[in-house]
Amino acid sequence: MPTARHRPPAPTGSRALLIPAAGVLAALAAVALLPFPAASLWPGGGYSDVAALGAALARGLEHWWRSGAVDAGPDLDAAVAFWARFHVVKAILSAVLLVLAVRLGRRTWHEYRQATGRGRRARLAVAGLAVSPVLVLAVLLVAANVQGALAPLSSALGLLPVGRVGAGSGSGGGGLAGTVREIRLALHSPDASVPPALARLVGDFAAYHAVMVGVGAVVTLGLAAAAVRVRQRRRGVEAEPWRLRGPRLLTATSILGLAVAFAVVTAANLSTYLHPAPALLGFFEGGA
């Protein structure tokens, strides 16, 4: 009779955290390094670096504003399309980072529960604290890049050095500086006829913040549910000692605090969505 195969025992101790920790580090590196070159692989090409992309955006915005057309034109459209691809790639990689960080956190907690010596528990507690900022970063990255992918025009405007352009409302000058001054002047004169480009800029800026309202609401509810889930102890389990109950309470409270922070951000984005023109003016004046 064939002998039954024996599976190798699951790794325990430090080895149990080594592979998930390596996965998190690899995902962090991928989030930081891959989005820009990966976005260049799509049809439509890419840019040598962020400075080249910013220059293309500045030229495209200037030509669009001077043309008086509704359509942005091929130069600006190409730059914005690239920026959307960048955010799509980064959102996917950030989601992978989030999943891996959650798995690492759960594995660390499991090892902490099983640990007996004080020294090992202390090391695992430090490891858990090190995972926490990675989890927060991953949540922020997913939210921000979903927003950028769905409303790339307003996101791409953030690459322009509008804050370095003088805040005067005069319309003289050319290049990006002259365009920004004319946009400021138009936003300062809401009763005047609205140029087609400005109407689209205001509409996209509203959409940009509407996306974050939706994303922020989902994240807020998800974090609140996660806080409740972490706080709850499994049924049928004996009362936990304080060394387990304390970290559980601290983790749940931290997650709930992050949920409150996202709720505040969501409310701020809702206010901007309802009044996009003043907020867009603040952005072009370097205050947003």
Characteristic key phrases:
10 helices, mainly alpha
How confident is the prediction overall: mean pLDDT?
86
**What kind of assembly state do the chains in view correspond to?**
single chain
Number of helices: 10
Please count the beta strands (DSSP E, at least 2 residues each): 0
Number of domains: 1
Radius of gyration: 25 Å
Question: What fraction strand?
Answer: under 5%
Which structural class best describes the helix and strand composition? Answer: mainly alpha
What is the terminal separation in angstroms?
74 Å
Helix content: over 70%
Q: What low-confidence regions span 5 or more consecutive residues with pLDDT below 50?
A: 168-172
Tertiary shape: elongated
Write the H/E string, N to C.
HHHHHHHHHH
Q: Tell me the major beta sheet.
A: none
